Amino acid sequence: MDFSFTEEQETVGKVARQLFEARATPERLTELESGDVRYDAALWTELASSDLLGIALPESVGGSGGGFLELGMLLSEVGWSVAPVPVYATLTLGADTIARHGDSDVQQRYLPGVVDGSVILTAALAEAGNSNPAAPRSTTARRHGDTWLVEGVKEMVPAAQLAHAIVVSAVADDGPGLFVVDTDAAEVVVTPVPTTDSEPYAQVTLTGAPARRLNGDGDLVGSLYTRALVGLCAIQVGVTERALRIAASYTAEREQFGRPIGSFQAVQQRMADAFIDTEAIRWTTWHAAWLIAEGRPAEREAAIAKFWAAEAGARVVATAQQVHGGMGIDVTYPVSRYYLWAKDIELALGSASQQLARLGTAYPEGRK
Which residues form the Acyl-CoA dehydrogenase/oxidase C-terminal domain (predicted)? Predict the structure, then answer.
């Protein structure tokens, strides 16, 4: 296998980085974080104008026809700049799912708006008391004529307060499935919840909300969960790379006892360990993303990547914070954002220990 990127994929990363570095400056982020919601509508519009929001959507809805690797490149740049835009929620959770499993009517209803920046989407997987986002329990769906009615409560739904529609996992008579509900329906109540990194999350309460069912072969909820995990890992690639870069720059400039602290053996060891962890996150993530892009099973590899993104990601940002000394915990210093984002990703959709448990239970007994 070859993990080098094509010229087109590298261009996605370069265009996104230039845009984010120009618009998602520390000053702009501070301004947004002091407001009601950490979302930059102007930047979202610029992403659409740069043809980045349709990068992994089919040409039939106005997209560029790219795949999951292109989406991963964009997500890693979101992490690099901790950009205040719902790329993960809209493209990974919502648009990608509808493009794969929605009929033409559903696709045309939502996806052209995603491409032009007028529609924000997300997906709701997490439930209270349920540690497995791939297996909904308390959210149900029942047929009502030509539509479906969904009931239940979903927790920690990314960008739900911004979204025009939500892909919801629910249990129907024939098993788990995915259903699209519009957030302007009276039966949908979106309640924002506070978060440490100021990212928009909400609780979504559904009381017989009208929905359209998505169709396809196999485990649709499990497929969405796998892709959602790898999307989080792609963001963590950018988060950890940038945190490590900030730390390396600081330790090269900060002097103690007449020389840069980066020349001290203890600091070098910490930074070397963080570099190895960052590489582990990178390679396990792109391996899983490559499998998805090739249409191959990636459930095990997604769990492995998420383990590294959670376990190693936490170590990398802890090192980045600690080599800064007291500055590392200053919330006005940029490294604090990377620490909070990495901790968010560490726990989202299953911690490192949960991923290990999934891997352990899935491993065939007696296999050597």
Answer: 231-358
| Cα end-to-end span (Å), the chain | 25
How many residues does the structure list for the chain?
368
In a domain, 61, yes or no: yes
Looking at the DSSP bridge assignments, the partners of residue 209 are 150
Which of 151, 140, 231 has its CA nearest to residue 177?
A: 140
The per-residue pLDDT for range 310-357, each reduced to its tens digit, is: 999 999 999 999 888 877 787 888 899 999 999 999 999 999 999 999
Q: Which two tokens stand for residue 351?
A: 């911690």
Q: Could you give the CA distance from residue 357 to residue 228 in angstroms, rounded to a whole number?
A: 18
Identify residue 94 by its one-letter amino acid code. Answer: G
1, part of any domain: no
* Phi, psi of 332, deg, nearest 5: -90, -5
- Single out the residue in 96, 119, 142 at which a domain terminates: 119
Q: Which of 213, 228, 251 is the last residue of a domain?
A: 213
User: DSSP labels for 86-146?
Assistant: -HIIIIIIIIHHHHHH--HHHHHHHHHHHHHTS--EEEE--BTTB--TTS--S-EEEEETT
Which of 363, 272, 276, 336 lies closest to 311, judged by CA? 276
- Diameter of the chain measured on Cα atoms: 77
The token duo for 148 is 């479906």
The CATH number linked to 202 is 2.40.110.10
Q: Give me the torsion for CA of 321, 326, 332, 336, rounded to 10°.
A: 20
**pLDDT, tens only, 25-47:** 999 999 999 888 999 999 999 99
Chain centroid, CA 345 distance in Å: 8
Asked whether 200 and 86 are in contact (CB, 8 A), the reply is: yes
Residues 114, 132, single domain; the answer is: no
H-type helices in the chain, by residue range?
Answer: 7-23, 26-33, 41-49, 68-81, 87, 96-101, 104-116, 220-253, 265-293, 299-322, 335-347, 352-362
Comparing C-alpha atoms, which of 117, 125, 50, 126 is closest to residue 85?
Answer: 117
Same domain, 46 and 155: no
